[in-house]
Amino acid sequence: MSEPITLGRDDVLLVVDVQNDFCPGGALAVTDGDAVVPLANRLGRTFSHVLLTQDWHPPGHQSFASAHPGRRPFETIQAAYGAQTLWPDHCVQGTEGAAFHPELDLTQAELIIRKGFRPEIDSYSAFFENDRKTATGLGGYLRQRGFTRVFLVGLATDYCVHYSAVDAVGEGFQAVVIEDACRAIDLDGSLAEARENMAKAGVSFITSDRLSA
Asked: Which one from 23, 91, 160, 182 is the annotated catalytic residue?
């Protein structure tokens, strides 16, 4: 059995996009997405510091298939910053779909990073939007707070968790994905590709039973 990981004051839990539209019944539902909620809640009580991300799109966002007449969800277009998957309208600002899952109980969270609010750029990562240049400010926040290790849970493993974990390493932090507290979309093999990319970047993978306060 692997050694337990003892958490310290420089560790932070990043809970990624546990929102209604990514859970069963939502506009872009991840299979079994709501299963991460009880684990995220339990982990939130284990960590001294918790941060949240929230997908927060304006109506008519460029990543929505509905913004491109004749296009359908899950097709790919070329945006100014490169390939962009088109999605069903989801996590529209101020809607119930954009709200956190009602059973997510992390009121102690110290920061909510909203992403994807620029109409012309999608944003998977908690650190950078998809042009790979526009920063959210999370890297600076973590550095100023003295955090060194970021543990990630949430939705979806192969998109927002994946890009956030890789960017965390790129920003100089240790990144650890808690796999049993994540779920994936797995679009055309995207989960295997994402896991390979994360491993190459230096991201670690654990299950929640290895953590101890």
From this structure: 160
